[in-house]
Write a structure and sequence with these properties.
The structure is a homodimer. By secondary structure, chain A is of the alpha+beta class. Chain A has helices spanning 2-8, 22-29, 32-41, 49-56, 60-72, 92-104, 115-126, 136-148, 162-171, 199-211, 228-238, 242-245, and strands at residues 47-48, 76-81, 84-89, 128-130, 133-135, 152-153, 159-160, 185-188, 195-198, 215-217, 224-226. The radius of gyration of chain A is 21 Å and the shape is globular. At the A-B interface, helix 1, helix 2, helix 3, helix 4 and helix 6 of A face helix 1, helix 2, helix 3, helix 4 and helix 6 of B. The first copy, chain A, binds a DNA duplex through residues 31-33, 48-50, 58-66, 68, 82-85.
DNA sequence: CGATCACTTCGGCGCCCGCCGAAGTGTCGC
DNA sequence: GCGACACTTCGGCGGGCGCCGAAGTGATCG
């Protein structure tokens, strides 16, 4: 039947007649500089144009052009403050798109250039924020510990168990009861290649950890260090072993 | 604190030192022809190189080059059979990536060229497969009816209720109990801009509908028509109104 | 075994797009 | 007001990449 219809089909390039313009959006991310911008903004904070230009190693004028495109394409949202142009990811959906892309994408083959770069790299691999939740060795370990203790359950998709809800309430973690956002969502970690915890609960946990001084940011990067208080809380609350909570310097 | 540290930061283009190569993957989708290939494969079936070339309106040689890139980038998987080269999306993860992209991407501004194109367009908008589940007006209506009847629940993320499990069992729908794949997942419909049902349950329902003759494919496209049997089943099982189940010709 | 067909390889063309630096606009602080 | 600074605009350069058609390979069929 299919062959018969093919005979009568007009020779039309009907590829895009309707359908969303995938390429338009993908092209925005498909450039090394703009991709670097996206990854930088995954830390959930707003960056200025100059910061991004410096981070990606391009001229300010180049950064401006890229930002114009990204804002016009609704991937970034901007906010002008005096002489500064702050940008952030437009919304949750864009953040998830970039996470998905990052999970699929291969590691960039970049020789580690210096000692400080190696250090920064290892700090990121150990613990970092990923948009608004926690990633890296520690993030993955938390997700696995929560699984083992029956706080979350992976059978037929990720789900927060009753015990998990109680555990959060016990800790005093306030989960944003947003109607649309899933309570728990898995996010493939791009250093560990194993899932860590995202979604409303992931975000709430991360927020809670900052609020209670369990961890703090390393400079202005998205790397974080676990404090003594954090080590105490995580090892008693989730039985995370000491080796995982402390970063081994390379 | 952040400002102080910034002063001491070295002037390095450390953008990609570590980190996944987003741009590499995004660039693969960021081309009109390759994007058309991706959308075509969203129907979940394997296409031959020539079919894709014709669909996108490019020469066979061009298609070959694109397919080489997409396979090398692990977005497509290929299977050689005699003189045919069949390709399909490499895995579930890629399919979801493309769905996410499609949900964000704007509609392609393409003037409808002919009557038959308009017809095809309206058929797709009414009911179509999206990878392995059902989309379009009908897909969205099913998801909403299931919500109203308490078979699925959106509070704190999408979840299959007890009643929903019972309903499926009652219908005789066999849900693949894959450990990793979520039972229910929402997928933003790009014609309706509202969510329809994906995940293991979405796939099982779609499979069930084909098996029981509730719907059938329109030629070799991913559009489907609801049969009389399907209208009966869906209106009695989910109280879907007749207007939604029958396509209004434009 | 020769015709046909699906796919591939290659050379060459043209355009798109990312880059920069120089000059311009707007904001802030003194 | 004047310098410093963040950002923007513009012209121009260069490389990358998507396209094609022609010629080649290998499978299939009569």
């Amino acid at each position: 039947m299919e062959d018969m219809n093919a005979k009568f089909a007009h020779v039309t390039a009907d590829a895009g007649a309707n359908s969303p313009d995938l390429a338009l959006v993908a092209r925005l991310i498909g450039d090394d500089t703009r991709a670097a911008f996206c990854l930088a903004l995954l830390d959930g904070r707003a960056w200025t144009a100059t910061e991004l230009a410096r981070h990606a190693g391009v001229a300010a004028s180049t950064a401006t052009e890229h930002l114009n495109a990204l804002v016009a394409g609704n991937l970034f949202a901007e906010e002008r403050q005096g002489r500064h142009r702050y940008v952030r990811l437009a919304n949750q959906q864009v953040a998830e798109l970039i996470e998905n892309l990052a999970a699929i994408a291969p590691e960039r083959a970049t020789p580690v250039s210096s000692l400080s770069a190696a250090n920064r790299r290892s700090a990121l691999a150990h613990a970092r924020t990923c948009y608004d939740h926690l990633a890296g060795v520690v993030g993955v370990a938390i997700a696995e510990a929560m699984t083992e203790r029956g706080l979350i359950d992976w059978g037929r998709g990720l789900r927060l168990t009753g015990a998990g809800g109680a555990w959060l309430a016990d800790l005093g973690v306030e989960v944003q009861a947003n109607s649309r956002r899933p309570a728990v969502r898995s996010c493939l970690d791009w250093t560990e290649r194993r899932p860590h915890l995202a979604g409303a609960v992931g975000a709430a946990l991360c927020h809670h950890a900052f609020e209670h001084g369990w961890m703090s940011r390393v400079g202005s990067t998205r790397a974080v260090t676990i404090t003594d208080a954090g080590r105490k809380a995580l090892s008693s609350g989730l039985c995370l072993p000491e080796e995982i909570l402390t970063r081994r310097h390379s």
